[in-house]
């Protein structure tokens, strides 16, 4: 009997701690949120979200403290060198400031500047493809520099249903590439299910791949297979690059097709709330709309990575999000996107 009551008491304490943690997790009371997180971790040490948020709360609390204390006791700036802002092009980690930007973009509270918006336009394009003179693509610019565009009516409802039907039986937990080993592995910052579809499996896949080539002007023979991804409630992918950085020497080694020069992201569903694709360096948010496709170059013409293309998938709050990715690689693009006479990969600047 005593064992029974101890068990019930433990369950109740866990339930109360979990409720308190989630309550303060969505409030602005950082100190109490950290306190509740630590209490929850004492009861459930392997609580995945609490462990991740503990690091975040500690950083946020430190930031708040630093803002309150402009200078140290001796009158000089007492910010440790390790806490100074990173000035390099590449963010070293998903840090506090980027996390705040990510959250604000997902919430729709951060917008592009008027200077970014004023030069954008929408138009019909044929990309010098004879067939498209009959039915050109509808192109909407989302950013001029880096160049990010949305193609409307890029995938039809009938195609989407076939792609979904093919992908569902193959779904596995989505993976990321380990920067050191080059191996694919699951990660806490990418929560979704994915499957890969080959071009030759179905005429619909072949049509989508051909359409991708017409949209981008790039050769699809060095592109990866079509990756289909489903995000359920809470599904997300934290800020990342699609291309491999210099230190990731083993990335895409097995493909032998070079780095990922460009990304095409097809939206295969509307999302009731959440699920936007956000670019944290340039304050751009793309909202999912069924049948549209986003396209951007990950590399400069020189082959250097464009760090402004760092992006994330916001958590799905209501509904389900379906997308498919076509990652295009460098090989066979030498004449389709040749290098310029001047290097175009200078210092990171927005």
UniProtKB/TrEMBL annotation:
Residue span, Fe2OG dioxygenase domain: 222-330
GO terms assigned for molecular function: iron ion binding; L-ascorbic acid binding; procollagen-proline 4-dioxygenase activity
Gene3D superfamilies: q2cbj1_9rhob like domain (2.60.120.620), Tetratricopeptide repeat domain (1.25.40.10)
Keyword field contains Iron: yes
Entry keyword set: Dioxygenase, Endoplasmic reticulum, Glycoprotein, Iron, Metal-binding, Oxidoreductase, Vitamin C
UniProt cofactor(s): L-ascorbate
Any one GO cellular component localisation term in the record: endoplasmic reticulum
Keyword Chaperone applies: no
Highest taxon, organism lineage: Eukaryota
Name of this chain's protein: Fe2OG dioxygenase domain-containing protein
Source species: Glossina palpalis gambiensis
Organism classification: Eukaryota, Metazoa, Ecdysozoa, Arthropoda, Hexapoda
């Amino acid at each position: 009997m005593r064992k029974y009551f101890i068990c019930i008491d433990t369950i109740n304490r866990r339930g109360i701690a979990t409720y308190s943690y989630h309550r303060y997790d969505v409030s602005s009371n950082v100190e109490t949120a950290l306190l509740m997180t630590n209490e929850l971790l004492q009861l459930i040490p392997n609580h995945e979200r609490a462990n991740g948020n503990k690091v975040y709360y500690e950083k946020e609390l430190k930031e708040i403290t630093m803002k309150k204390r402009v200078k140290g006791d001796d009158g000089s700036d007492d910010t440790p060198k390790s806490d100074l802002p990173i000035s390099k092009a590449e963010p070293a980690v998903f840090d506090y400031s980027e996390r705040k930007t990510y959250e604000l973009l997902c919430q729709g509270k951060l917008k592009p500047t008027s200077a970014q918006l004023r030069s954008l336009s929408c138009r019909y394009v044929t990309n010098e493809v004879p067939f498209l003179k009959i039915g050109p693509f509808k192109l909407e610019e989302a950013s001029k520099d880096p160049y990010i565009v949305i193609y409307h009516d890029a995938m039809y409802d009938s195609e989407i249903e076939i792609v979904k039907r093919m992908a569902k039986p193959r779904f596995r937990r989505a993976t990321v590439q380990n920067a050191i080993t080059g191996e694919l592995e699951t990660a806490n910052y990418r929560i979704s299910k994915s499957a890969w579809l080959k071009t030759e499996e179905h005429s619909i896949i072949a049509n989508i791949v051909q359409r991708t080539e017409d949209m981008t002007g790039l050769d699809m023979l060095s592109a990866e297979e079509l990756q289909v991804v489903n995000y359920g409630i809470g599904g997300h992918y934290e800020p990342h690059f699609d291309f491999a950085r210099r230190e990731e020497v083993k990335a895409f080694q097995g493909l032998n097709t070079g780095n990922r020069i460009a990304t095409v992201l097809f939206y295969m569903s509307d999302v009731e709330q959440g699920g936007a694709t956000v670019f944290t360096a340039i304050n751009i948010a793309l909202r999912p709309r069924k049948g549209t496709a986003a396209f951007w170059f990950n590399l400069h013409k020189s082959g250097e990575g464009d760090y402004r293309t760092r992006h994330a998938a916001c958590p799905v709050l209501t509904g389900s999000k379906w997308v498919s990715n076509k990652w295009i690689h460098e090989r066979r693009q030498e004449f389709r996107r040749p290098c310029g006479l001047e290097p175009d990969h200078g210092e990171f600047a927005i």
